[in-house]
Known about the structure:
Bound molecules: flavin-adenine dinucleotide
Structural class: alpha/beta
CATH superfamily of the largest domain: FAD/NAD(P)-binding domain
Number of domains: 3
Number of helices: 11
Amino acid sequence: MRVETDYLVIGAGASGMAFADALVTHSDADVVIVDRRHRPGGHWNDAYPFVRLHAPSAYYGVNSMPLGNDTIDRDGPNAGLYELATGAAICDYYTRVLDERLIPSGRVRFLGMHDYRTNDTGVNRVVSRLTGATSDITVNRKVVEANYLQSDVPATHTPTFTADPGVHVVPINELANQREHSAGYTIIGAGKTAMDACIWLLRNGVDPGRLRWIRPRDAWLVDRASLQPLDLVSSIVDGASRDFRALAGATSVDDLFRRLEQDGRLLRLDPDVTPTMYHCATVSRQELTELRRIEDVVRLGRVQHIGSDRVTLDGGSIPHDPSHLYVDCSASGLRRPRPRPIFEPGRITLQQVRTCQPVFNAALVAYVEATRRDDPAKNALCPVNPYPDNALDWLRSMAVSVAAAAAWSAEPDLKYWLANSRLNFLRGASERADEPAMQEAAQRSREFAQLAMKRLRELIPVRL
Length: 464
Ligand SMILES: Cc1cc2nc3c(=O)[nH]c(=O)nc-3n(C[C@H](O)[C@H](O)[C@H](O)COP(=O)(O)OP(=O)(O)OC[C@H]3O[C@@H](n4cnc5c(N)ncnc54)[C@H](O)[C@@H]3O)c2cc1C
Protein backbone atom coordinates (compact mmCIF):
# COMPACT_ATOMS: atom_id res chain seq x y z
CA MET A 1 0.00 0.00 0.00
CA ARG A 2 1.25 3.52 -0.72
CA VAL A 3 0.28 6.43 1.49
CA GLU A 4 1.04 10.08 0.83
CA THR A 5 1.06 12.86 3.42
CA ASP A 6 2.63 16.20 4.26
CA TYR A 7 3.89 15.22 7.73
CA LEU A 8 4.55 11.77 9.10
CA VAL A 9 4.56 11.90 12.91
CA ILE A 10 6.32 8.94 14.52
CA GLY A 11 4.77 8.40 17.93
CA ALA A 12 1.30 9.21 19.26
CA GLY A 13 2.54 9.94 22.77
CA ALA A 14 1.93 13.26 24.48
CA SER A 15 4.51 14.97 22.25
CA GLY A 16 3.26 13.64 18.91
CA MET A 17 -0.33 14.46 19.82
CA ALA A 18 0.42 18.02 20.95
CA PHE A 19 2.42 18.56 17.77
CA ALA A 20 -0.25 17.18 15.42
CA ASP A 21 -3.01 19.13 17.16
CA ALA A 22 -1.18 22.45 16.85
CA LEU A 23 -0.06 21.78 13.27
CA VAL A 24 -3.58 21.01 12.10
CA THR A 25 -4.84 24.15 13.87
CA HIS A 26 -2.29 26.47 12.30
CA SER A 27 -1.87 25.05 8.80
CA ASP A 28 -3.73 23.16 6.12
CA ALA A 29 -1.30 20.26 6.32
CA ASP A 30 -2.23 16.61 6.04
CA VAL A 31 -0.77 14.40 8.81
CA VAL A 32 -0.25 10.69 9.33
CA ILE A 33 0.53 9.58 12.89
CA VAL A 34 2.05 6.14 13.33
CA ASP A 35 2.44 4.30 16.63
CA ARG A 36 3.24 0.76 17.55
CA ARG A 37 0.69 0.95 20.36
CA HIS A 38 -3.00 0.47 19.65
CA ARG A 39 -4.02 3.90 20.84
CA PRO A 40 -2.47 7.29 21.55
CA GLY A 41 -1.03 8.31 24.92
CA GLY A 42 2.42 6.72 24.68
CA HIS A 43 3.92 5.59 27.97
CA TRP A 44 0.79 6.53 29.90
CA ASN A 45 -0.69 3.29 28.54
CA ASP A 46 1.89 1.35 30.57
CA ALA A 47 1.85 3.47 33.69
CA TYR A 48 1.21 2.12 37.19
CA PRO A 49 -2.46 2.18 38.20
CA PHE A 50 -2.08 4.91 40.80
CA VAL A 51 -0.01 7.26 38.60
CA ARG A 52 -1.07 10.87 38.25
CA LEU A 53 0.39 13.81 36.44
CA HIS A 54 3.14 15.39 38.46
CA ALA A 55 2.21 18.90 37.32
CA PRO A 56 -1.25 20.43 36.80
CA SER A 57 -3.63 19.03 34.17
CA ALA A 58 -4.45 22.65 33.34
CA TYR A 59 -1.40 22.83 31.05
CA TYR A 60 -1.05 19.21 29.93
CA GLY A 61 -2.38 17.49 26.80
CA VAL A 62 -3.08 19.37 23.58
CA ASN A 63 -4.00 22.98 22.97
CA SER A 64 -7.43 22.40 21.49
CA MET A 65 -9.02 20.35 24.29
CA PRO A 66 -8.99 20.88 28.07
CA LEU A 67 -7.88 18.06 30.33
CA GLY A 68 -9.98 18.03 33.51
CA ASN A 69 -11.85 20.99 34.91
CA ASP A 70 -9.07 23.28 36.14
CA THR A 71 -10.22 22.81 39.72
CA ILE A 72 -8.08 23.18 42.81
CA ASP A 73 -7.88 20.09 45.02
CA ARG A 74 -9.33 20.49 48.49
CA ASP A 75 -7.98 17.33 50.10
CA GLY A 76 -5.06 14.96 49.96
CA PRO A 77 -1.39 15.57 49.29
CA ASN A 78 -2.17 18.04 46.50
CA ALA A 79 -4.59 20.16 48.56
CA GLY A 80 -4.61 23.82 47.54
CA LEU A 81 -3.07 23.04 44.14
CA TYR A 82 -4.51 22.51 40.67
CA GLU A 83 -5.78 18.99 39.95
CA LEU A 84 -3.54 16.23 38.58
CA ALA A 85 -5.12 13.83 36.07
CA THR A 86 -4.92 10.09 36.69
CA GLY A 87 -3.23 7.83 34.13
CA ALA A 88 -6.62 6.42 33.12
CA ALA A 89 -8.01 9.91 32.53
CA ILE A 90 -4.97 10.82 30.44
CA CYS A 91 -5.35 7.74 28.20
CA ASP A 92 -9.06 8.43 27.79
CA TYR A 93 -8.28 12.07 26.99
CA TYR A 94 -5.89 11.20 24.17
CA THR A 95 -8.42 8.80 22.64
CA ARG A 96 -10.96 11.63 22.66
CA VAL A 97 -8.46 14.06 21.15
CA LEU A 98 -7.93 11.63 18.30
CA ASP A 99 -11.59 10.70 17.83
CA GLU A 100 -13.18 14.09 18.43
CA ARG A 101 -10.58 16.54 17.10
CA LEU A 102 -7.88 15.11 14.91
CA ILE A 103 -9.71 12.50 12.83
CA PRO A 104 -12.81 14.72 12.27
CA SER A 105 -10.50 17.44 10.89
CA GLY A 106 -10.29 15.20 7.81
CA ARG A 107 -6.54 15.84 7.68
CA VAL A 108 -5.21 13.31 10.19
CA ARG A 109 -4.87 9.55 9.83
CA PHE A 110 -3.76 7.32 12.69
CA LEU A 111 -1.90 4.08 12.00
CA GLY A 112 -1.98 2.26 15.34
CA MET A 113 -0.21 -1.09 15.83
CA HIS A 114 2.36 -0.10 13.21
CA ASP A 115 6.13 0.03 13.57
CA TYR A 116 7.94 2.78 11.75
CA ARG A 117 11.04 1.68 9.87
CA THR A 118 13.25 3.30 7.31
CA ASN A 119 15.24 1.25 4.89
CA ASP A 120 18.64 2.08 3.43
CA THR A 121 17.18 4.07 0.58
CA GLY A 122 15.41 6.35 3.03
CA VAL A 123 11.92 5.08 2.30
CA ASN A 124 9.49 5.69 5.13
CA ARG A 125 8.00 2.29 5.74
CA VAL A 126 5.49 1.19 8.37
CA VAL A 127 4.75 -2.41 9.21
CA SER A 128 1.51 -3.65 10.76
CA ARG A 129 2.08 -5.56 14.00
CA LEU A 130 -1.07 -7.54 13.30
CA THR A 131 -0.80 -8.50 9.64
CA GLY A 132 2.84 -7.85 8.79
CA ALA A 133 1.66 -5.75 5.84
CA THR A 134 4.04 -2.94 4.91
CA SER A 135 3.11 0.50 3.64
CA ASP A 136 5.52 2.99 2.13
CA ILE A 137 4.72 6.54 3.04
CA THR A 138 5.57 9.39 0.71
CA VAL A 139 6.21 12.43 2.86
CA ASN A 140 5.86 15.73 1.03
CA ARG A 141 7.17 17.94 3.81
CA LYS A 142 8.67 16.41 6.94
CA VAL A 143 9.08 13.33 9.06
CA VAL A 144 8.48 14.29 12.69
CA GLU A 145 10.35 12.21 15.23
CA ALA A 146 8.09 12.37 18.27
CA ASN A 147 9.85 9.31 19.64
CA TYR A 148 13.37 10.72 19.91
CA LEU A 149 13.36 11.13 23.69
CA GLN A 150 11.98 7.60 24.24
CA SER A 151 10.22 7.25 27.57
CA ASP A 152 11.59 4.52 29.79
CA VAL A 153 9.08 3.26 32.38
CA PRO A 154 9.24 0.30 34.79
CA ALA A 155 6.55 -1.77 33.05
CA THR A 156 8.44 -1.87 29.77
CA HIS A 157 12.12 -1.53 30.62
CA THR A 158 14.61 -4.27 31.46
CA PRO A 159 16.24 -3.54 34.82
CA THR A 160 20.03 -3.21 34.72
CA PHE A 161 20.26 -5.48 37.79
CA THR A 162 19.73 -9.23 38.06
CA ALA A 163 18.16 -11.31 40.82
CA ASP A 164 18.49 -14.88 42.01
CA PRO A 165 15.51 -17.19 41.47
CA GLY A 166 13.05 -16.91 44.33
CA VAL A 167 13.75 -13.23 45.03
CA HIS A 168 10.51 -11.28 44.70
CA VAL A 169 11.11 -8.34 42.33
CA VAL A 170 8.15 -6.57 40.72
CA PRO A 171 7.75 -3.39 38.69
CA ILE A 172 5.86 -0.64 40.52
CA ASN A 173 2.78 -1.53 38.42
CA GLU A 174 2.40 -4.80 40.35
CA LEU A 175 2.08 -3.14 43.76
CA ALA A 176 -1.64 -2.62 43.29
CA ASN A 177 -2.09 -6.31 42.38
CA GLN A 178 -0.64 -7.76 45.60
CA ARG A 179 -2.80 -10.49 47.12
CA GLU A 180 -0.71 -11.03 50.24
CA HIS A 181 1.03 -8.38 52.27
CA SER A 182 4.81 -8.38 52.58
CA ALA A 183 6.68 -7.87 55.81
CA GLY A 184 8.55 -5.05 54.14
CA TYR A 185 9.18 -3.34 50.84
CA THR A 186 12.50 -2.39 49.28
CA ILE A 187 12.03 0.42 46.78
CA ILE A 188 14.72 0.61 44.10
CA GLY A 189 15.19 3.99 42.42
CA ALA A 190 15.78 7.64 43.18
CA GLY A 191 13.34 9.37 40.87
CA LYS A 192 9.74 10.45 40.96
CA THR A 193 8.44 6.94 40.27
CA ALA A 194 10.15 5.66 43.41
CA MET A 195 8.69 8.60 45.33
CA ASP A 196 5.24 7.72 44.01
CA ALA A 197 5.69 4.11 45.19
CA CYS A 198 6.77 5.24 48.68
CA ILE A 199 3.95 7.77 49.03
CA TRP A 200 1.37 5.25 47.82
CA LEU A 201 2.55 2.61 50.31
CA LEU A 202 2.60 5.11 53.18
CA ARG A 203 -0.83 6.45 52.31
CA ASN A 204 -2.14 2.88 52.23
CA GLY A 205 -1.06 2.33 55.79
CA VAL A 206 2.38 0.73 55.44
CA ASP A 207 4.51 1.77 58.38
CA PRO A 208 7.59 3.76 57.28
CA GLY A 209 9.72 1.36 59.35
CA ARG A 210 8.80 -1.37 56.88
CA LEU A 211 10.19 0.53 53.92
CA ARG A 212 13.79 0.36 52.77
CA TRP A 213 14.66 2.82 50.00
CA ILE A 214 17.64 2.18 47.73
CA ARG A 215 18.40 5.67 46.48
CA PRO A 216 21.55 5.78 44.33
CA ARG A 217 21.42 9.58 44.08
CA ASP A 218 19.52 12.30 45.90
CA ALA A 219 17.60 14.73 43.74
CA TRP A 220 16.85 18.41 43.86
CA LEU A 221 13.07 18.65 43.77
CA VAL A 222 10.68 21.36 42.64
CA ASP A 223 7.84 22.49 44.89
CA ARG A 224 4.60 21.90 42.97
CA ALA A 225 3.16 25.01 44.62
CA SER A 226 5.56 27.07 42.50
CA LEU A 227 4.19 25.66 39.22
CA GLN A 228 0.56 26.70 39.57
CA PRO A 229 -1.22 28.24 36.59
CA LEU A 230 -4.30 30.46 36.04
CA ASP A 231 -5.51 32.00 39.31
CA LEU A 232 -2.25 31.00 40.99
CA VAL A 233 0.02 31.93 38.08
CA SER A 234 1.83 34.47 40.26
CA SER A 235 3.53 31.40 41.80
CA ILE A 236 5.42 30.85 38.53
CA VAL A 237 6.24 34.51 37.92
CA ASP A 238 7.29 34.94 41.53
CA GLY A 239 9.46 31.81 41.32
CA ALA A 240 11.28 33.01 38.22
CA SER A 241 12.02 36.35 39.87
CA ARG A 242 13.43 34.55 42.90
CA ASP A 243 15.66 32.47 40.63
CA PHE A 244 16.99 35.70 39.15
CA ARG A 245 17.66 37.09 42.61
CA ALA A 246 19.47 33.94 43.72
CA LEU A 247 21.58 33.93 40.56
CA ALA A 248 22.41 37.61 40.79
CA GLY A 249 23.77 37.20 44.30
CA ALA A 250 25.49 33.82 43.91
CA THR A 251 29.21 33.71 44.49
CA SER A 252 29.59 30.09 43.38
CA VAL A 253 27.50 27.17 42.21
CA ASP A 254 27.28 25.84 45.77
CA ASP A 255 26.21 29.25 46.98
CA LEU A 256 23.56 29.39 44.24
CA PHE A 257 21.99 26.10 45.31
CA ARG A 258 22.10 27.24 48.94
CA ARG A 259 20.21 30.40 47.99
CA LEU A 260 17.70 28.52 45.83
CA GLU A 261 16.99 26.14 48.66
CA GLN A 262 16.73 28.89 51.26
CA ASP A 263 14.17 30.62 49.09
CA GLY A 264 12.14 27.42 48.63
CA ARG A 265 12.96 27.21 44.92
CA LEU A 266 14.55 23.79 45.27
CA LEU A 267 13.81 21.16 47.89
CA ARG A 268 15.72 18.12 49.07
CA LEU A 269 14.67 14.99 50.89
CA ASP A 270 17.47 14.81 53.40
CA PRO A 271 18.91 18.04 54.83
CA ASP A 272 22.23 16.25 55.43
CA VAL A 273 22.76 14.99 51.88
CA THR A 274 23.62 17.30 48.99
CA PRO A 275 21.63 16.30 45.90
CA THR A 276 23.54 15.61 42.71
CA MET A 277 20.59 14.83 40.46
CA TYR A 278 18.01 17.13 38.89
CA HIS A 279 15.22 15.66 36.75
CA CYS A 280 12.56 18.35 37.36
CA ALA A 281 10.85 15.96 39.81
CA THR A 282 7.95 17.79 41.40
CA VAL A 283 6.46 17.23 44.85
CA SER A 284 4.08 18.99 47.18
CA ARG A 285 5.26 19.92 50.67
CA GLN A 286 2.92 17.28 52.09
CA GLU A 287 4.49 14.61 49.92
CA LEU A 288 7.95 15.73 51.01
CA THR A 289 6.94 15.40 54.66
CA GLU A 290 5.64 11.90 53.98
CA LEU A 291 8.80 10.83 52.19
CA ARG A 292 10.98 12.09 55.02
CA ARG A 293 9.34 9.55 57.33
CA ILE A 294 11.38 6.81 55.62
CA GLU A 295 14.62 6.46 57.55
CA ASP A 296 16.13 3.31 56.06
CA VAL A 297 17.78 4.83 53.00
CA VAL A 298 20.56 2.90 51.25
CA ARG A 299 23.07 5.09 49.45
CA LEU A 300 25.53 2.67 47.91
CA GLY A 301 24.91 3.40 44.24
CA ARG A 302 22.87 1.28 41.85
CA VAL A 303 21.80 -2.26 42.49
CA GLN A 304 23.82 -4.82 40.51
CA HIS A 305 22.41 -8.09 41.81
CA ILE A 306 19.90 -9.26 44.39
CA GLY A 307 21.26 -12.57 45.69
CA SER A 308 19.63 -14.98 48.07
CA ASP A 309 21.71 -13.64 50.95
CA ARG A 310 23.02 -10.19 49.94
CA VAL A 311 22.12 -7.29 47.65
CA THR A 312 25.19 -6.13 45.72
CA LEU A 313 25.36 -2.47 44.78
CA ASP A 314 28.00 -0.37 43.01
CA GLY A 315 29.42 0.78 46.32
CA GLY A 316 29.00 -2.24 48.64
CA SER A 317 26.37 -4.70 49.77
CA ILE A 318 23.48 -5.00 52.21
CA PRO A 319 21.71 -8.07 53.56
CA HIS A 320 18.94 -9.51 51.45
CA ASP A 321 15.69 -9.71 53.38
CA PRO A 322 13.64 -12.62 52.02
CA SER A 323 10.48 -11.21 53.59
CA HIS A 324 10.75 -8.05 51.47
CA LEU A 325 9.11 -7.38 48.14
CA TYR A 326 11.57 -5.54 45.87
CA VAL A 327 9.84 -2.82 43.87
CA ASP A 328 11.61 -1.82 40.67
CA CYS A 329 11.36 1.93 40.07
CA SER A 330 14.74 2.17 38.39
CA ALA A 331 13.64 3.11 34.85
CA SER A 332 15.15 6.42 33.86
CA GLY A 333 11.86 8.07 32.80
CA LEU A 334 13.40 9.51 29.69
CA ARG A 335 16.42 8.45 27.73
CA ARG A 336 18.71 11.34 26.97
CA PRO A 337 19.94 10.98 23.39
CA ARG A 338 22.43 13.34 21.74
CA PRO A 339 20.74 16.70 21.10
CA ARG A 340 20.26 17.65 17.44
CA PRO A 341 18.67 20.67 15.78
CA ILE A 342 14.89 20.48 15.98
CA PHE A 343 14.41 21.67 12.39
CA GLU A 344 16.41 20.08 9.58
CA PRO A 345 15.61 19.56 5.91
CA GLY A 346 12.84 16.99 5.70
CA ARG A 347 12.88 16.30 9.39
CA ILE A 348 11.71 17.64 12.76
CA THR A 349 13.10 16.08 15.93
CA LEU A 350 10.93 16.98 18.90
CA GLN A 351 13.00 17.93 21.94
CA GLN A 352 12.72 20.34 24.85
CA VAL A 353 12.91 24.11 24.45
CA ARG A 354 11.42 25.46 27.67
CA THR A 355 12.80 23.16 30.31
CA CYS A 356 10.71 20.10 31.22
CA GLN A 357 7.57 21.18 29.36
CA PRO A 358 7.27 18.42 26.74
CA VAL A 359 3.75 19.07 25.50
CA PHE A 360 4.11 22.85 25.40
CA ASN A 361 7.34 22.45 23.44
CA ALA A 362 5.80 20.07 20.92
CA ALA A 363 2.94 22.50 20.25
CA LEU A 364 5.37 25.42 20.03
CA VAL A 365 7.47 23.56 17.44
CA ALA A 366 4.34 22.87 15.38
CA TYR A 367 3.29 26.52 15.50
CA VAL A 368 6.75 27.67 14.46
CA GLU A 369 6.81 25.08 11.66
CA ALA A 370 3.44 26.30 10.41
CA THR A 371 4.30 29.97 10.47
CA ARG A 372 8.00 30.28 9.52
CA ARG A 373 9.81 29.35 6.35
CA ASP A 374 13.49 28.66 6.87
CA ASP A 375 15.03 26.24 9.32
CA PRO A 376 17.65 28.61 10.84
CA ALA A 377 14.87 31.07 11.79
CA LYS A 378 12.82 28.23 13.27
CA ASN A 379 15.76 26.86 15.21
CA ALA A 380 16.50 30.33 16.58
CA LEU A 381 13.04 30.33 18.15
CA CYS A 382 13.35 26.71 19.29
CA PRO A 383 16.85 26.16 20.69
CA VAL A 384 17.35 22.63 21.98
CA ASN A 385 17.34 22.37 25.74
CA PRO A 386 18.44 18.83 26.72
CA TYR A 387 16.54 17.24 29.60
CA PRO A 388 18.45 17.89 32.81
CA ASP A 389 20.16 15.04 34.59
CA ASN A 390 22.59 16.42 37.15
CA ALA A 391 22.38 19.41 39.45
CA LEU A 392 24.46 21.65 37.18
CA ASP A 393 21.93 21.09 34.41
CA TRP A 394 19.60 23.37 36.36
CA LEU A 395 21.79 26.24 35.19
CA ARG A 396 22.03 25.07 31.58
CA SER A 397 18.28 24.53 31.32
CA MET A 398 17.60 27.92 32.81
CA ALA A 399 19.95 29.65 30.36
CA VAL A 400 18.31 28.09 27.29
CA SER A 401 14.78 28.69 28.59
CA VAL A 402 15.48 32.37 29.22
CA ALA A 403 17.17 32.82 25.83
CA ALA A 404 14.22 31.17 24.08
CA ALA A 405 11.71 33.36 25.92
CA ALA A 406 13.67 36.46 24.88
CA ALA A 407 13.55 35.33 21.23
CA TRP A 408 9.77 34.76 21.44
CA SER A 409 9.14 38.18 22.94
CA ALA A 410 10.43 39.84 19.76
CA GLU A 411 7.78 38.10 17.60
CA PRO A 412 4.28 39.61 17.98
CA ASP A 413 2.41 36.62 16.53
CA LEU A 414 4.27 34.24 18.81
CA LYS A 415 3.47 36.42 21.81
CA TYR A 416 -0.18 36.22 20.86
CA TRP A 417 0.04 32.44 20.47
CA LEU A 418 1.75 32.11 23.86
CA ALA A 419 -0.91 34.22 25.54
CA ASN A 420 -3.61 31.89 24.21
CA SER A 421 -1.95 28.48 24.41
CA ARG A 422 -3.49 26.37 27.19
CA LEU A 423 -0.22 24.42 27.33
CA ASN A 424 1.69 27.56 28.28
CA PHE A 425 1.88 27.57 32.08
CA LEU A 426 2.17 31.36 32.02
CA ARG A 427 -1.15 31.79 30.20
CA GLY A 428 -3.23 34.41 31.97
CA ALA A 429 -0.24 36.14 33.54
CA SER A 430 -0.73 39.41 31.66
CA GLU A 431 -4.42 39.61 32.68
CA ARG A 432 -3.30 39.34 36.29
CA ALA A 433 -0.41 41.78 36.02
CA ASP A 434 -2.05 44.16 38.50
CA GLU A 435 -2.14 41.68 41.35
CA PRO A 436 0.23 42.70 44.16
CA ALA A 437 2.17 39.41 43.98
CA MET A 438 2.66 39.87 40.24
CA GLN A 439 3.78 43.46 40.68
CA GLU A 440 6.26 42.46 43.34
CA ALA A 441 7.64 39.67 41.15
CA ALA A 442 7.91 41.97 38.12
CA GLN A 443 9.82 44.50 40.20
CA ARG A 444 12.19 41.77 41.45
CA SER A 445 12.77 40.52 37.92
CA ARG A 446 13.52 44.03 36.65
CA GLU A 447 16.00 44.47 39.46
CA PHE A 448 17.88 41.18 39.10
CA ALA A 449 17.36 39.70 35.61
CA GLN A 450 20.30 41.31 33.86
CA LEU A 451 22.81 40.55 36.57
CA ALA A 452 21.35 37.05 36.89
CA MET A 453 22.05 36.24 33.25
CA LYS A 454 25.58 37.60 33.54
CA ARG A 455 26.23 35.45 36.61
CA LEU A 456 24.68 32.45 34.91
CA ARG A 457 27.19 32.71 32.08
CA GLU A 458 30.05 33.14 34.55
CA LEU A 459 29.03 30.19 36.71
CA ILE A 460 28.86 27.70 33.91
CA PRO A 461 30.02 27.74 30.32
CA VAL A 462 26.77 27.52 28.40
CA ARG A 463 26.53 27.40 24.61
CA LEU A 464 23.33 29.17 23.70
C1 LIG B 1 5.09 8.92 35.78
C2 LIG B 1 5.31 10.11 34.90
C3 LIG B 1 4.65 11.30 35.17
C4 LIG B 1 4.85 12.40 34.35
N1 LIG B 1 4.20 13.56 34.64
C5 LIG B 1 4.35 14.62 33.82
C6 LIG B 1 3.63 15.85 34.05
O1 LIG B 1 2.87 15.98 35.00
N2 LIG B 1 3.80 16.88 33.19
C7 LIG B 1 4.65 16.77 32.12
O2 LIG B 1 4.77 17.73 31.34
N3 LIG B 1 5.34 15.65 31.88
C8 LIG B 1 5.21 14.57 32.70
N4 LIG B 1 5.92 13.44 32.45
C9 LIG B 1 6.86 13.41 31.35
C10 LIG B 1 6.24 12.62 30.21
O3 LIG B 1 7.22 11.71 29.82
C11 LIG B 1 5.77 13.46 29.10
O4 LIG B 1 4.77 14.32 29.58
C12 LIG B 1 5.18 12.71 27.92
O5 LIG B 1 4.18 11.79 28.32
C13 LIG B 1 6.21 12.04 27.07
O6 LIG B 1 5.55 11.76 25.87
P1 LIG B 1 6.30 11.46 24.54
O7 LIG B 1 5.30 11.52 23.46
O8 LIG B 1 7.49 12.35 24.39
O9 LIG B 1 6.89 9.98 24.71
P2 LIG B 1 6.14 8.57 24.79
O10 LIG B 1 5.04 8.59 25.75
O11 LIG B 1 7.24 7.58 25.03
O12 LIG B 1 5.56 8.34 23.33
C14 LIG B 1 6.34 7.92 22.24
C15 LIG B 1 5.48 7.03 21.37
O13 LIG B 1 6.23 6.68 20.21
C16 LIG B 1 5.93 5.36 19.86
N5 LIG B 1 7.06 4.85 19.06
C17 LIG B 1 8.37 4.93 19.36
N6 LIG B 1 9.11 4.40 18.37
C18 LIG B 1 8.24 3.98 17.43
C19 LIG B 1 8.39 3.34 16.17
N7 LIG B 1 9.60 3.06 15.65
N8 LIG B 1 7.29 3.01 15.47
C20 LIG B 1 6.06 3.30 15.95
N9 LIG B 1 5.85 3.92 17.13
C21 LIG B 1 6.93 4.26 17.85
C22 LIG B 1 5.75 4.64 21.18
O14 LIG B 1 4.96 3.49 21.04
C23 LIG B 1 5.07 5.73 22.03
O15 LIG B 1 3.67 5.59 22.03
C24 LIG B 1 5.74 12.30 33.25
C25 LIG B 1 6.41 11.11 32.99
C26 LIG B 1 6.20 10.02 33.80
C27 LIG B 1 6.95 8.74 33.50
